[in-house]
Amino acid sequence: MPNNTNVFSVIVTYNGIRWIKKCLESIIDQCQVIVIDNNSQDDTVELIKNEFPEVQLLEQSKNLGFGKANNLGISIAMQKGADYVFLLNQDAYVDAAAIEKLSHFANSNKDYGIICPIHCNWEATHLERSFSEYINYANNKDFYSDYVLQKPIKTVYDVPFVAAAAWLITKECINRIGGFDPIFFHLGEDANYCQRVLYHGLKIGVLPEVRIYHDTMNRIYPHLEKYSEQYFFKKSYHNKAKYADINLKQIEKKIHYQKKQLLKSIVLAAVKLNKFNFLGALKEYRQFSQQMRESLISREKNVITGKHYLDL
């Protein structure tokens, strides 16, 4: 039985056979573990059942997406009396005693809603690329300076955002904020959650004494052809992350301006008799309008405190 019985780790899996054994080995003795499997088609589920029978495994008949699957795990953890929920990506593993250190800090610093480790690459040779941007000078002016100039390392470094590869979320934060907003299927949901955490008066902190190791080196970021399927997918989560941000002021004015710009693209394509650009711009305008309807409904809900999007 793990020592930290009031801490539950929630791990969402999808075809994670490459990483899941190391991921679970790193966390299984630190806290109770809930795995939500998003209908994996490889041997992920079989490995968990055979090698980690103590894990509470919930197999899904379809891919729920990252946010909705995590919401299911968070709900179960809270129903079981969790004081903290540690979200961990399937392609990451943690330091020994990571949960103890994170929860110890959280116990003494109630103004934090999310506490994160340092994100290193899988091989532990570098900072993870995206993480190095989350902690840059614009987001925290002290982090790199403290290390390079050999100044005393702080206990915590505040940031406005860290990706949800490894979040310790407090019970107070969950009670105040809820879960991930379902307008996001995959990507953008963690940015939106951080926006809500800050809006409702809680902090996000990185603890330099704790590390995770995250395999992101083989992720492919292809060049996006305008009006391609991937172009519209990226536009969708970017638009929602931007306009569903409850910290954003003059939202109606900003949406109106963006619609005018999109309409200009439609008119320009029509004048030039460019059918491809005309149909693409028209589709983008229609999708943007739908995304804004969703974002405005989201904003109305998320400015109110509550256990939103959770089965509690």
Explained architecture:
The chain is α/β, with parallel strands linked by helices and 312 residues long. It folds into 2 domains: 4-214, Spore Coat Polysaccharide Biosynthesis Protein SpsA, Chain A, CATH 3.90.550.10; 229-302. The protein has 11 helices and 9 strands. It has helices at 20-27, 44-51, 66-79, 98-108, 129-134, 143-148, 171-177, 189-199, 229-243, 251-271, 275-302, and strands at 4-13, 31-37, 56-59, 84-88, 92-94, 112-121, 157-158, 166-170, 203-214. Strands 1, 2, 3, 4, 5, 6, 7, 8 and 9 form a 9-stranded mixed sheet that branches. Helix 1 links the parallel strand 1 and strand 2 (31-37). The longest helix is centred in the last third of the chain and has 28 residues, at 275-302. The radius of gyration is 21 Å and the shape is globular. 40% of the residues are buried. The model has no long low-confidence stretch (mean pLDDT 96).
Quick gist of this model?
It is built from eleven helices and nine strands. The protein is of the alpha/beta class. Strands 1, 2, 3, 4, 5, 6, 7, 8 and 9 form a nine-stranded mixed β-sheet that branches.
